[in-house]
Structures are given as C-alpha cells and as structure tokens.
Amino acid sequence: MSRPKLIIDTDPGVDDVMALLLALSAPSDEVDISMVSVTYGNVSRTHSHGEDRRANQKVTMFYKTVCLWYLAQFLNFCSAQDNWHGADGEDGLQNVHKVYPQFSPAKDWPKLFEMLGTRSLALWMRWPAAHREMLRLLRENPEDSITIVAMGPLTNVTLAAAEDPETFLRVKEVVVMGGAVHCEGNVTPVAEFNCAMPTLLPQHGPGSTMPSLHIRSSNLPNYPLNLPRWLELTLAPLDITLPHMMTKSYFEQQIKPHIQAGSPLALWTSSFIMATFDQMTSLQATDKETELSLHDPLTIWYAMTRDQGVWETTAKPEDLRVETTGESTRGMHVVDKRNRNIADDGSTLTGVSSELTDNILGDDMGWLNPTKGNRINRLIKSPGADLFQEHWMQRVFE
User: Fold this and answer.
1) What protein family is recorded (predicted)?
2) Which pTM does this prediction carry?
3) DSSP string of 162-198, one letter each residue
4) Running DSSP on this structure, what letter comes out for residue 336?
C-alpha cells in the first residue's frame, strides 16, 4: 500500500495545529506531506505562517513547501468574521508565543515575507500563491496521487479549482472539514465556521448550483460545461467530528510525565490546549467535564488511514449545497430530505455538465435532476471516537 501524499490547507488555530502535529509526527514511510498552505480563518496571515513554523520546529526539521493564500481576493468576505474566534488570542493559540517566547521562531522570521523563494532550515517559502502551487503539484504528479486536506475556509481550494479545473480534477480526493448536516452549527444555529466564512467559497467549490449573482460578485469564472469527471470530495462535518473528543482530565494525566521530563513540545502544546479547556469551562452552563472536539485532527486521521478500510461514508454521494444568501441560514448545509425519486441514468458518473438537461417540472433548483447539484461523500463512521484521543497522544508524544 503506497503512502498517502498530502497537501494540507489550514488556518492555524488550536485544533488545526493539533492536526498538523499529528501529520508531522508520522514516520516518513507513512505519509508524504507535499505542501502546507495557509488560508484565512480567524488569525492573521503573518501569525498563521508563524504557527506553521512553530509546529514544524516542535516535531522535526524538514524541507517542505509552505505557501500563503492570495490575500486580496476575498478580503471583503472575511472582515466580518475577524473576531469570531478572537478569544483564542492573536496567534490563535491562546497567545502561547507570549507564554513561551523561547519556543517561537527567531524574531526576524517575518522578514521571510520579504525573502520570497529563499530556503531556510525548516522552511521553503514558495511564490506564487498557494493555489497556484497546488496546481503545480497536481500537474507534476501522477493523476490520483495527491489528496488535499482542507481544514479551514476554502479560499485556496476554490481559487485553484476556478483557475484550472481540469488540472484540479487530477486530485485523488479533497477532504474538507466543514459544515453541519444533521446537527447544530457552531457559529450560528445552523452553520459551521469554515462554511460560514465566507459562504461563497464552499458553494463554489462543491458545485455551481447557487444564484449566478453571487458567482459574478466573486470575480471567479464559471466552470466549463463539460469536465472530464466529478471531483472526489469527502466531507467531515460536525456530525462526525464533534463526538471525537479529548477530555481535560485525560489530557492532564497523559501530558504530565512529558512536562516533568522537560519536553518543549509538551510545554508548548499544554499551554494552549489547557487554556482552551479553561476557556470552554468558563462558557459551559453545566458541570459536565470539559471536552475538546478534535475536528481538524480527524481529517488528518482519515487522510492517513482511508485505504485501510476502517472508515465509512454515506452509501451514495449526497447532493449537499451551501446556503449563501439567507439572513439567518447563511453557511447552512442543505440536503433534500423529501421522499422523492431521483432519476439515475448513470449520468452522475459519466458527465458533469449542469446545463445539458432541462429541469424537471416544479424542480427549478434541480434537486431531482441527476445531472445537477453536487456529489459529496460524507463521513459517517470512524475507527472509533473513543480511540482517537489516545491515538493522538501516542502519535504526537511517543
């Protein structure tokens, strides 16, 4: 079995960095991390890049590509969301860079933004922007050999798919942490953060079924009518990530011997993880033990073990769509729950055009049309929610 080759697209925060640590702690014969790209979430581009460097330094020193997102393209969509997770500190990690400044990169590291194309011991900053580097890797590697793991808003993924959809479809799979399908959201009653900020991106990524006005306002081109195949997109929504939790008591117990041994990694991670637990405790209305859901680490776990036959997705790909215009439902994942027949003529496997077949009478949105909408694999079962916290601790610290 060949090792998975990953592009990790992240907006570094607490669980994003925990996911990076899980990936970076894997032996080189288990996974090939081809690139780490940074996208906009709730941490500035400079701090996001800094957290990637810190995570890299804590685990191993390696030559890999780190890319930054194209800043201006979606800035107008991001500004309203800047402070949604502001309580995590300006670095997204509970200000761990102030608690342990000795574990931060040298103070001159921001100069790397001015030293484009240069190598350092642990970093090779690439230019042009992240989405173009994604496309370069997809062109230069065999088709179906690279998996993109998107753990933040889909800025880079959307730009890559829009700029060169044929090349983008060379990807083996795009794994997305995002959405809330049959459960409540986390930033609104119905929306999950990555798909709420901004909603334009996830709706343009999975498909093109939303109002054309929004597409035009994005300055992104429409996809060609006839593409060679469907994008293999696997969604890890809150429905499956929420039950994969780490409890405060378990983390305290397991991290203690590593801290006593003076592990820099243990000191660094315990600072922001324990601060996150404390923050969550202060927000709880009950005395239930504080638990941290491992949203982004689960996507890495899946990407590294998907070929082992221990995961389960929905029986058929689902037509999931992201609401972009609703006043109270923006970012909501919509699925057709009506008991209606959908024609199945094989076109969902052989064609991608959403323009070639007329709508069924009374079905203006194309929900019952097999050539329209999206085809998304949704994760519904993992190797075990109760196993994951132990797996993460063992892989990162042992």
Assistant:
1) Belongs to the IUNH family.
2) 0.82
3) HH-HHHHTT-SEEEEE---SSS--SSSSSB-HHHHTT
4) -
